[in-house]
Specification:
Blueprint (H helix, E strand, L loop, with lengths): L1 E7 L4 H4 L13 H16 L6 E4 L3 H14 L6 E2 L16 H8 L1 H9 L36 H16 L8 E5 L1 H11 L18 E5 L5 E6 L12
Length: about 240
């Protein structure tokens, strides 16, 4: 039996400003750092020995994980994987969600944010927000850097990485993943066997550890958010 702990990064500056962030690197707010520290304290109370840590390529998820590790007094190196990045929001990147809603309608924004296979218009490769122009991705093949993504696209890259690099470790090791709202929603779709309609209703709160207890067949025995005051409905539990 093993534990998988999923943590969405603490509140970022663009979360606070209600901007579509996607693959752009933004910092944690002070509240986001507090959320990360609280997440570490909640995990520490569980007294679980974490064998491997994973995160995306993105600063806000990396910084959240570093704060958690400081609280746990665990100096293990963590594994960074671009496949765990947030969904790429295409031409919406950097725009204010409320302002976009006023222009194209709230339902259209909701469709872009929550639909399974609808993606926004592609982001120009000349944009400073495009991953081809972000230093963190200089060593990646250009063909893997998206111009835009649907949740389905995000699911496919996250699940492939999970199956290739993480799943086998869960047979007898405990793992913590610090990532993003949509990359963790994608992973939860697989773990909780959610259909394409259910996934649109799943919310992942910032900085609130979701601890999943798995049996030897990697089936979920139990799961819970550690911060009960900010827990969200897991749809099946």
């Amino acid at each position: 039996m093993s534990f998988l702990i999923l943590v969405r990064h603490g509140q970022s500056t663009w979360n606070l400003e209600k901007k579509f962030t996607g693959w752009v690197d933004v910092k944690l707010t002070e509240n986001g750092r507090i959320e990360a520290e609280k997440a570490g304290l909640l995990i520490k109370k569980k007294r679980i020995n974490i064998n491997f840590y994973f995160s995306s390529f993105q600063l806000r998820a990396n910084d959240t994980l570093k704060i958690i590790q400081e609280v746990l007094d665990d100096k293990k190196n963590f594994i960074r994987a671009w496949q765990l990045n947030e969904r790429h929001y295409g031409a919406l990147t950097g725009l204010n969600k409320i302002e976009v809603g006023e222009k194209i309608g709230k339902n259209k924004v909701l469709e872009f944010r929550r639909s399974w296979d609808i993606k926004p218009e592609p982001l120009s490769r000349k944009s400073p927000y495009h991953p081809t122009n972000i230093e963190a991705y200089n060593n990646l093949p250009k063909e893997v850097l998206p111009d835009t993504e649907s949740l389905k696209d995000t699911y496919e890259r996250v699940l492939k990485y999970f199956n290739d690099e993480i799943k086998k470790k869960l047979l007898n090791e405990n793992i913590l993943i610090s990532a993003h709202g949509n990359s963790l929603r994608a992973l939860c779709k697989y773990l909780f066997k959610l259909n394409n309609t259910q996934i649109s209703s799943l919310e992942i709160p910032t900085g609130n550890p979701l601890i999943i207890h798995l049996n030897k067949e990697l089936e979920i025995k139990s799961c819970e958010y550690l911060d009960k005051k900010r827990a969200k409905n897991l749809l099946i539990f």
